[in-house]
């Protein structure tokens, strides 16, 4: 499939410049290992900037050579293409995987930190309010972009500012200057933005109560969602409005009503445990998952008139 934009000579030129700037990179890497879905084909080049200087040099290089690229985080909310070979993949490491407590009891967290262990560690230091965030898989950067949340809370309840590269310019943007809402931020609309870190602040709390809250939320998640299964989390956002019984609309209920619970395509399965989840039961392909997503959306719209909005993002083209 290899795009003309990624010719062998241009890739070689890119690798030489990365080597000169001592920016780590890897070649011909299968991306399935980078996401919980374990779906994804071979990327011709993965660049791994370790700090802001590396990232700046990388972005200038890609812009100068007009090379297409995409940023890959934890992959928890992504469906990676079976053929991600017409763009370069960026994967942030080094300082972007670090977090530290600041003097005002806030925390600065790099965008490549894993959400679950990071928020659990912060909670166990005696800070409360964000225990629900310890149940959300993925990386901080992706959680910021989608304003991740559950159980009535969301990440932007606690963010003070976001550090981000917009094109090749680094900016620190305070919360009151950012448009955000339910599973949405303005960063979703700008595919050239790269989150590098956030400042976040929680309230001090009672450690015993915090430990109980962590346990309760972990058990609640395990009981309501497919545990230890290969999935990308919720496929669709919950629609606005109320159901016939006056309760908030739920995507899983709408999918269940059209008879798709347990529907499969290849090794992709609409989970019998929670049918707003698609799980990979073997060697599922991105096209199999895409088929089920399209099927669910079409059947729900035909029956109820409600158009389900995807929460899962596509990483590369999926025909």
Could you give a quick summary of the protein structure above?
By secondary structure, this protein is of the alpha+beta class. Helices cover 27% and strands 24% of the residues.
**Strand order across the biggest sheet?**
6-7-15-11-12
Round the Cα radius of gyration to an integer and report it: 20 Å
| Average pLDDT for all residues | 92
Tell me what portion of residues adopts beta-strand conformation: 15-25%
Uncertain stretches: none
| Structural class assignment | alpha+beta
Alpha plus pi helix count: 7
Query: Overall 3D geometry?
Result: globular
Summarize the biggest pleated sheet. Answer: 5 strands, antiparallel
Indicate the topology.
Blueprint: H1 8-20, E1 25-30, E2 42-47, H2 52-64, E3 69-71, E4 78-80, E5 88-90, E6 99-101, E7 107-110, H3 115-124, E8 127-128, H4 140-145, E9 149-150, E10 153-154, E11 159-166, E12 169-174, E13 180-181, E14 184-185, E15 193-200, E16 203-204, H5 207-224, E17 231-234, H6 251-257, E18 264-265, E19 268-270, E20 277-280, H7 286-304, E21 313-315
Parallel strand pairs: 2-5, 3-5, 4-21
Antiparallel strand pairs: 1-2, 6-7, 7-15, 8-16, 9-10, 11-12, 11-15, 13-14, 17-20, 18-19, 19-20
